[in-house]
Protein 1
Amino acid sequence: MAQAEIGLIGLGVMGSNLALNIAEKGNKIAVFNRTVERTHEFVEEAGALKDNIVPCETIEEFVAAIRPPRPIIIMIKAGDPVDQQMELLRPHLEKNDIMIDAGNANFRDTMRRFDALKDSGLTFIGMGVSGGEEGARHGPSIMVGGTEDSWKRVEKVLTSIAAKYNGEPCVAWLGENGAGHFVKTIHNGIEYADMQMIAEIYGILRDGLKMSATEIGEVFATWNMGRLNSYLIEITAKVLEAADPIGGKPIVDMILDKAGQKGTGKWSVIEAQNMGVPATAIEAAVAARSLSSLKGEREAAEKILGLPAVAPLSVSDKTAFIKDLESALLAAKIGAYAQGFAVMAAASKEFNWNLPMPTIAKIWRAGCIIRSQFLDEITSAFTKAPDAANLIVTPAFADMVKETDGSLRRVVSAAVLAGLPVPALASALGYFDSYRRGRGTANIIQAQRDFFGAHGFDRIDGTDSHHGPWGSGLGAGA
Ligand code: NDP
């Protein structure tokens, strides 16, 4: 039997679907799973694709089944299991074999693993895969980080399985070591913001306009045909229109309002903070998930404090207000994406990756969770202005911000006055308002810092005098 083109370890939700996708595109693939029964089940369920799958019960058998230099995808639980699996695999590998971690790794782990293999003759690829189960099976978005040589070895297979946007594959080599996993992390950070902003708009429709889940679903379905067209808006409409098999009510009304998180949102925020890049909408989204998980505390607080003692949302023209909500969501989304891309631009410098922004937007247009028509507009904006300091100052997006930020301001104001929480929408608005204001208010912060800590300041007239006339207060504390 001909040797497999590629190997895959980990036949869980993502690994099994990725393996079927690889086999379906005509690539022979060797597979291995820690629990051997799962391997047998997988092959039994593979139908006609069985012919392209080589099931292996031991690591030795698995390695021998793959044509050298061997690309081996590891698609297992992220963290320590990946290190353990690599340790088990390593003694069986030969020069130029490539271990590819396709799970949701922290890019700092990817850098460590990459460095650890550097002079060993083996190579490491950190590969972000987005699209969930469906994407893995029929075409994910794939973000690759590693050496360019190792990318060349896997390019053909990955291109064959990636999602396509107008025929263009949603896979790219983005740079050395942790580049792929970093970009995947920021993809997820943006996803957190996108989802939170949708949830806040849903809250205004549900608690402000008192609309039913089905009615709100219709609003989202309509928006999905316009500028907000995206996978997340599409599934939100579907989710809102779905009935509970137990009892028949809208299923969303039966779901506990506690959101889970696995870490990529938090990592995005930590890395943004480490580099001093404001990512306020992503931060707000991560914090909102944490707040959501404090269900018991929130219920107790509502008993003690009550809901805000304010007038309910009052809307004279519901149709016009819903139109404003649509534009507000678009404006806020621009803020979140601008922040995500700004974090990647800073990381690109910090880690010497040379991240290609238009390419990143391109490979997110299909396959991944944040896929949308909007990403095509980002691709075009960054292609025309690759060195733009921020997405919102590219000509196309500057026009979009100017056109939609009034809606965001009205929606945030109305929600705040009605006591409806909109932390991510408000963060995006605050970001725009701060970013576009040449003369801010940090002069007072500098004066305060100098007063209590003698930290000094620069003057606007360039005069070489860096401390204020604070007298005995100067340098009073830290
Ligand atoms: P599953 O829980 O479905 O599968 C986990 C897999 O990991 C199983 O094959 C399991 O093997 C294996 N595994 C766990 N611990 C070990 C270990 N110590 N040594 C060897 N194998 C181990 O996970 P998913 O497929 O959902 O996720 C896999 C990776 O993909 C994760 O990093 C996840 O974050 C990432 N990911 C997931 C997405 C999703 O939508 N689910 C989307 C994008 C990325 P066994 O059968 O023996 O238990």
Note: The chain has a mean pLDDT of 96.
Protein 2
Amino acid sequence: MELWKKTLSSLRDRVEPYDYKHWIAPVSCERVDEGRKEIVLGVPDDSHGRWLAEHFVGAIKSALRDLTQSDFAVSFSAPEASDLVAAPPPAPLKLVSGVREPEAPVASVGVPGLIDRYRFDSFVDGPTNQFAMSAARGVGDHPGTLYNPLFIFGGVGLGKTHLLHAIGHEVHGKNPRARVRYVTSEQFVNDLIASIQKNEMNAFRARYRDTCDVLLIDDIQFIAGKDRTQEEFFHMFNTLHSLHKQIVLTCDQLPQSIPDMEDRLTSRLQWGLIADIKPPGFETRVAILRRRAEVDGVDLPDDVAMTVARHITRNVRELEGALMRVVAMAKLTGRPLDVEMTHQALGNIIGKTLERIAPDTIMKAVCAEYKVSPSELKGPRRHRNITVPRQIAMYLVRELTDESLPQIGAFFGGRDHSTVINSLKRVEALRDANPEIRAQIDRVRRSLRD
Ligand code: ADP
Ligand code: MG
């Protein structure tokens, strides 16, 4: 138990404060066996356990490794009568093992290490990730022939690992005999060090080079500054590449920006296709939340999705985390899943990320873009030169504020709420059909941000 206390304080430095508070702090240590290197962590409910298994088990393990110099098997245990999620028949102690473990029950039976949920059909594409997604699909369909290597880069929590796993699932699904190997670069480094120590380098090379058709390495930036690893990786890369075996890498930056990376390696990382992922825009964020809710069987009201999407903008992992939090709170308190609840659940984040934008400010920004006056927008005229800006102003007020539909209608000259709904639909259609309108909307959004 002492061990878990130390692990907690080391985790505090490793994860974002928000994640620490909401995901790590509520975890207790149920059992620890230092001899067998096993630890069982108590979690409030199954979904919390699954979330930890998907997102934090790596951090937990590496904190344990630093403290004990050994690799612990980590599992999570939820109380039996957890009614927060539809649970399978009760077992005395429910274990959700770390999903990255090959033997874990929730991991795919196909390729070891791949998270089952990370597939192309659960990935929501939008303008900021479409290119990476198409490239990944191409590679999944035709490994080793299109782009080699495929290098996917972008900030944290934007779906790089998701796409990498999706490629693995796809290749395996189409050809179960293809030998797909997935590792994080951290695992790769550890494996290399252990192989050197045990004098088992031949087996190491066989694993990654000779018995591998598709090599997926996550977060390649971690091999920077590690000379021996770079050396091994360099030779492995050359062999695989010359045999037309597919290599896919993810990274938090461009090859040429990774510090302490050997030049000859940097240049190889640039041989194939480089695809970036940027934070998704508002519509994509809403779509991701809807998809996630669908997968989890949650009935998610539109205004809740929009409120969450409006406030959590940087990172999809945080977006999903926020949704989970709102859903959990609604279930725990038995109150409806609505905007009110969302504000309560996300209180401190919402207060911090966004000062409120007044509907009036939005309206003025739209007027400036379209060269019309506020009184025209609020007035009765139905000429296209006025109606389009009016509808766009309603749409942006809906997106950027918490005003309800009737409040928006009232603000724009006493229109009723069905008029507002029609306006929102119309703008969505215009926006999808007309790039110029989309650019205008974006311009107004940007002008409101600075
Ligand atoms: P990264 O590896 O870039 O840090 P991940 O692939 O781990 O990010 O993604 C973080 C979380 O966000 C995962 O749960 C993933 O499924 C989800 N996610 C990211 N992008 C998307 C997307 N476009 N559609 C659906 N889920 C996404
Ligand atoms: Mg990742």
Note: The radius of gyration is 25 Å.
